[in-house]
Amino acid sequence: MGSRQRHRAWLRSGWIPALALAGVVLGRAGSALASAGSAGHEDPFAGILFALALVVTSALLGRWLAARLGMASVVGELVIGVAVGNALYQLGDPLAVVLMHSGTVNDVVREAWLSGRSIAQAAQQVMGDEKLVPGTPGAQVIALLGGPDGPRLFMLMTALWIFSSFGVILLLFLVGLESTIEGMLQVGGRAAAVAAVGIAAPFALGWATSLWLLPDEAATTHLFHGAALTATSVGITARVFKDLGRLQSDEARVILGAAVIDDVLGLVILAIVVGIVATGRVELDAIARIALLSAAFLGAVLWLGEGLARRVVRLFAALERSQVKLLMPLVFGFLLAWAANEIGLASIVGAFAAGLVLRDELFEDAGSEARTLHEMLAPLESIFAPVFFVLMGMQVDLGHFREPATLALGGAFVAAAIAGKLAVGLAAGPGVDKLSIGIGMVPRGEVGLIFASIGKSLGVIDDAVFSAVVLMVITTTLVAPVGLGWSLRRGTGAGAAS
Amino acid sequence: MGSRQRHRAWLRSGWIPALALAGVVLGRAGSALASAGSAGHEDPFAGILFALALVVTSALLGRWLAARLGMASVVGELVIGVAVGNALYQLGDPLAVVLMHSGTVNDVVREAWLSGRSIAQAAQQVMGDEKLVPGTPGAQVIALLGGPDGPRLFMLMTALWIFSSFGVILLLFLVGLESTIEGMLQVGGRAAAVAAVGIAAPFALGWATSLWLLPDEAATTHLFHGAALTATSVGITARVFKDLGRLQSDEARVILGAAVIDDVLGLVILAIVVGIVATGRVELDAIARIALLSAAFLGAVLWLGEGLARRVVRLFAALERSQVKLLMPLVFGFLLAWAANEIGLASIVGAFAAGLVLRDELFEDAGSEARTLHEMLAPLESIFAPVFFVLMGMQVDLGHFREPATLALGGAFVAAAIAGKLAVGLAAGPGVDKLSIGIGMVPRGEVGLIFASIGKSLGVIDDAVFSAVVLMVITTTLVAPVGLGWSLRRGTGAGAAS
């Protein structure tokens, strides 16, 4: 996996070389012994643990770097993923190659399985001959996949995908947990107006940009590009205000309220757009049906969810009091995520809704655990969510940025994304710093990435555009803390209400 | 997945039918809508979450039942796995069918992948024509696997295997965490003698039983059967004494000390036996080499491990103080598990060694987290370890017990396992209740199951013998609490030291 290069490049500390040396010695010694035939019982899970350890350590290094540069942690995880993924990809590391083309790999394996043909034949079917000319990335992927190490690489890739999917589910569940139904209903018209403009303006700008720069793409692709610009990241926004000690300001409350509404609206929009992609064309009755279904699901969860949760808590408490605050939320979140997917929504919508429903008070009579739900579940998220972001970064092929078209597209998306969110200041009403609210809405963070990855898995967003969207997410997330810091300091002296 | 049947059979409570009804309605509604084509973007991870939720809930139900019957939790998880797995298997549930034959499934998929042929052709190669006659379980598995749902089923099976492997690693890591190097060195000659007899006697009896009842099997198979009887479960033993309020008695301390030594010796024996299986014959120099390698690895970890751990703790604390007590132990455990596997030991040996090395004091200067390592990591284990035991139970094909030969073999293993451990009383020395110490060493628990599953994955233990070994594990684990309770109450009045 080349952990040595990774560490040395990123941290000039005495510990890293020492640790790396130990790793090299251990690894080499192990390989030598294993190939000498003395032992050689292979547990395939050991490789998965090694990959997981490296991804978690990389995430930590990324977060450390981000903290040193005053950036949000998520930026560090993404950037280290991009750096490590592309470095290993250039070095021809098999796992990095397979991860960079995970969508293609899944398609080819599925085709080979269902058609009963070999990997090479399935690749011709899926990718076409021109993408398999010797020397192309496609040929490299298929050579690895069809080789003797193919099953192991696929298993490693699948395991990382499983841990990363687990991470997003837990992340959205915790975001939901940090929000409450009451909090969402309390944020008045001001937050709602900001949220509405914050959805509509970036969507329109993103859609127009896509139409303008990619005239040959399908209508669904333009819709997806518009939708990918709508999200606001509650986590990043909140952390920026917290870092600046302004969490209780009017601006912070309006932004956080709007961001919560935005999150839900964005997910509904995602469901709508995904539904349109699935049916292949813009069907107004399908939109209405999906919107109704989404509303019905969320409505049912919000209105009936608490009653259901109470019953499930009591059931789990009757089964085992000591574990109730850990296992009940997880099972509840998993089942709502599954139910959302069954109904046609994204599974993360279900996880978010489950988090929204659950509150510590529901557990007051059930069990002796004094820790809050957040304290119980945050450790799980701490391990798995970074896997999602590092893996996301590892799928950004920097090679795409060599092409001026992609770079131009990325730049245009960045401009549309920032301009669209700055426009929300118009809806913020009097007495607050409109510019700060606009900048505060800019970071896209995890939700934007989730949009991009779903679009990629649906085949609506191709590799080049995916890279452009990730560039947009990284840039907006990097720009916001810097811009907001400047704006708030300026605003304090100029015209802020508080 | 048939969660309805599962719940109703196991718990006559008002909540279960209510929850089940909600599940049915939601599930059916979802299917109807999805098949109506209104939505239909499928996230394959949603099915994994559903399966995980059901497995965790089943584990809870099993533990609840076990608690009601005064049994150890692990027995409940196993038994519910056996019950649910066999019920769903009889009903023809696709996932249960695939899980019951997971070894065959992996072999066939691997063969199909590497040979470039179809699932059906690979199955003929791997299983032979006679196991694929229509109507046999083999034909059923291959029909499912080669069908349109094959990739999804394989993915589900793989995901559950990944979570379950993660669970065993965490379990052994926590068992290691509960033991200390000092504690192991302090237990004197008495515990060591008990441990030695507790390994030698069951090994000899198991080996002799295997030779006697299975005369046609290879020498390696007899060795594996002997090795599978050697382990003692620290967790179960400790919990039985704790439940009876006798954790501080002389008997408890001797048993716990011996069980810790037993655990390590048992794992070394596993490594030796696995090495012999890998080389195909009994090679004395290979045994010596593996024994040396095991000793060197464990020695290095025990002598140098603390220094290494200190450095890694300082490194992680420098990167991010708030997460150090969560992420450092996990990464350290993962890397030692991987290193152990690279060297030829089982990865669980590495995880156990990592747990042995880590202590809360190592983290005193690093970070503000007041919780103990055990408190930080136990929640993770609570979710994933039960997946291992429930899945283990689901792989027990009760159909094997219809064959008198398997039943006789299981009975003989039970007799050998109990007699072998009762013999340790002879080595316990004066002043303690010899019978209680013997009975206290009887439960095999998780370690015996790990032996069986490794033997199965190596192809040394076939399905029928696997079922016999699981019968032995279940029986010894069930018998011990009852027998120990009786023996200790008798011993208090008769001749115990304290």
Give a description of the structure.
The structure is a homodimer of 498-residue chains. Chain A is an all-alpha fold. Chain A has helices spanning 3-10, 15-35, 44-68, 73-90, 94-100, 102-115, 119-127, 137-146, 150-178, 181-186, 189-213, 219-228, 234-243, 250-279, 284-319, 324-343, 347-357, 373-394, 404-422, 434-440, 445-458, 463-494. Chain A contains 22 helices and no strands. Chain A starts with a helix and ends with a helix. Chain A has a domain at 169-384 and 398-492: Na+/H+ antiporter like fold, CATH 1.20.1530.20. In chain A, helix 14 crosses helix 20. The longest helix of chain A is centred in the middle third of the chain and has 36 residues, at 284-319. The interface between A and B is large, with 102 and 102 residues.
List keywords for this structure.
homodimer; 498 residues; mainly alpha; Na+/H+ antiporter like fold; 0% strand; globular; disordered N terminus; disordered C terminus
Quick structural gist:
By secondary structure, the first copy, chain A, is an all-alpha fold.
Structural class of chain A: mainly alpha
Q: Which CATH C-level class of the domain at 169-384 and 398-492 in chain A is it?
A: Mainly Alpha
Biggest beta sheet attributes of chain A = none
Oligomer category: homodimer
Rg on CA atoms of chain A, Å: 23 Å
Cα(first) to Cα(last) distance of chain A is 52 Å
The biggest chain-chain interface is:
A-B, 102 and 102 residues
Query: Which whole number gives the mean pLDDT of chain A?
Result: 78
